[in-house]
Design a protein that fits this description.
The protein is built from seven helices and six strands. With about 240 residues, the chain is α+β, with helices and mostly antiparallel strands. The chain has two domains: about 15-105, no CATH class; about 120-235. The strands form two sheets. A four-stranded mixed β-sheet has the order 1-5-6-4. A two-stranded antiparallel ribbon has the order 2-3. It is elongated and about 100 Å long. It binds zinc ion. Zinc ion (ZN) binds near residues 27, 29, 43 and 47.
Length: about 240
Amino acid sequence: MATTATPPPSNGPLVVQPLKRRHCGECGRGPLPLLVMEEGTPRCLDCADLGHLVFLPRGDTALTRRSREESGLSAVVVRFHRRRGRYERQGVLVEEAALARAEERCLADAEARRRRRTRDARRRAAEDVRFTDAFARNIRRLFPGCPADRAHAIAAHASVRGSGRVGRSAAGRALSEAAVVSAVRAAVRHTETPYDQLLMSGVARHEARRRIAAAVDGTMACWREGGPDGEGREGGPAWEGEDD
Ligand SMILES: [Zn+2]
């Protein structure tokens, strides 16, 4: 197994974290935590004119790249990994002011990303409100007897973003009659009948559905008929505007 003792090539000076105790060949200081090999002789960072640089450990790719961009002089720091038989990058040495500028750029990015997320969230919230209102109007159009607050609750529940419930399915998006009926049926089942109690008491789902089917149909028929004065049944799609 050839363990090459030659560090990888890199731009600028290469700084080594020595495994053995090394002393500077010029000033004699040591043992050195970091050194530069010059013509086979270790030198301390001060003697190698790198003493003014600060160490930035590896791990933050953007910060590292920007620090090196900002730094007039920078050096890669490596250490020899005996078992793997190769030099591995530990970080970089950069000018302190360059590191500060790079940190500011990264913070500015994070701040910009945070602001964009806030804008996106506001826009989605507005879309959800419009969607829920349109859905509620369609519930009231098909089920005039459904109380307005119940219609809105059903619409809001059905249109929760990403929930996978009927309101956000493709059909729900299109506000089709089938999607509206399905959302109303689910709501009636859970809130106007003992369906949930049946499930909690151990009744199998299909048996529970069978037991409440008549009650569900009754409530839905009542809501379909029950417009106070029968309005809302005709006219174009309710989501186009008007209404309420
Ligand atoms: Zn020295």
